[in-house]
Amino acid sequence: MKLYRCRICGDTYLGSEAPSHCPFCGAHRELMVEAREFPPDINAVDPTETEHADLEASIELETSNTRFYLAAARRPGNDALRSYFKRLAKVEAEHCGIFCKLLGADKPSDLMTPSESTGSWASDIQDSLKREKRATGLYHTFAERATSERLREVFAAIADVETDHIALDEEAETYL
Ligand SMILES: [Fe+2]
Ligand SMILES: [Fe+2]
Questions:
Q1: Total domain count, the chain
Q2: Which of 8, 26, 54, 103 has the least CB density, counted as fewest CB within 10 Å?
Q3: What is the pLDDT of residue 104?
């Protein structure tokens, strides 16, 4: 067994090999490094004005998506989809925490308060697709215009995770 650490969220993983995706933030395997290779000052960034605004927009987006997924996870009747949305809520909350860390901000106080779902499983999956596509597009833009190497790394990694969620939503439809 080895101790791995995710370069994106900083959480650790114990295993004989690195997982395909970070279990906490969803970052891809190449971002899971052995703990000794994890730079202690990895999040020491000094965001420019644009990066500051992009981090704030990211926190807002992740909060909205976390709260939506928590609401969707409350609907009774389809246990598989409930657990799917519950897992997505945890991943998006983790993303929110990453952006807060980079900005040196507290997590929003309503982060874990469910907002409202759309009314049916099928329309929640459609809403989720819209959210994930929007997130993917935004994070690609933020990654392209970031001047800090660290911020580029994080935005690009999370764009990949949100892209994975688009494929997951398509898989979720088979549970309807
Ligand atoms: Fe992670
Ligand atoms: Fe996210």
A1: 2
A2: 103
A3: 97
